[in-house]
Design brief:
There is one protein chain. The protein has one domain (about 25-130): 3-Layer(aba) Sandwich (Glutaredoxin). Helices cover about 20% and strands about 20% of the residues. The protein has helices at about 50-60, 100-110; strands at about 25-30, 65-70, 80-85, 90-95, 130. The protein has a five-stranded mixed beta sheet with strand order 2-1-3-4-5, with helices on one face. Strand 1, helix 1 (about 50-60) and strand 2 form a beta-alpha-beta unit. Helix 1 runs parallel beside helix 2 (about 100-110). The chain is globular, with a radius of gyration of 14 Å. The model is unreliable at about 1-10 and about 15 (pLDDT under 50). Bound molecules: FE2/S2 (inorganic) cluster (FES). FE2/S2 (inorganic) cluster (FES) binds near residues 37, 73, 74, 76 and 79.
């Protein structure tokens, strides 16, 4: 998976905890912008990458919360997909079709920069899915 900085990060299935090599990172948001997610020619909503990057910059949280814009994460049927990751926890979100979904993700990231175990915004709770298909 390529990150915004062009670095290759670990495959998501191998991630058990944050292992970015930086002690200051407390959370990571992975936003899929692959073959399906954000592909308007397939009828999917555009992924607001510029909006997210601007929120990270405005909130000055890049050192605490990594933002990765990713190629396909696997579960394309859930387009658009994102993963909220904190130490020991991965929350998969799918069917992110509204700007308010991404606003909620940006809000979660802002809080996660300075708190642990930040609750998932209520607007996103119905978007949570199990990538292994158990939910
Ligand atoms: S393109 Fe996003 S999960 Fe496949």
């Amino acid at each position: 998976m390529m990150t915004m900085s062009g670095k290759t990060s670990e495959p998501l299935t191998d991630v058990k905890s944050l292992s970015t090599g930086s002690d200051s990172i407390s959370a990571r948001v992975i936003v899929c912008n692959g073959c399906c997610c954000g592909n308007t020619s397939k009828g999917h909503s555009e992924v607001p990458i510029k909006y997210l990057e601007e929120k990270w910059e405005k909130n000055d949280i890049s050192k605490q919360v990594e933002l990765d814009i990713s190629d396909c994460l696997g579960p394309c049927a859930w387009h658009n997909v994102a993963v909220l990751e904190t130490e020991g926890q991965q929350i998969w979100l799918g069917d992110l079709s509204q700007p308010s979904h991404y606003e909620a993700i940006a809000d979660w990231a802002k809080k996660s920069a300075y708190q642990t175990m930040v609750e998932i915004p209520s607007i996103l709770k119905s978007n949570i899915f199990d990538p292994d298909g158990q939910d």
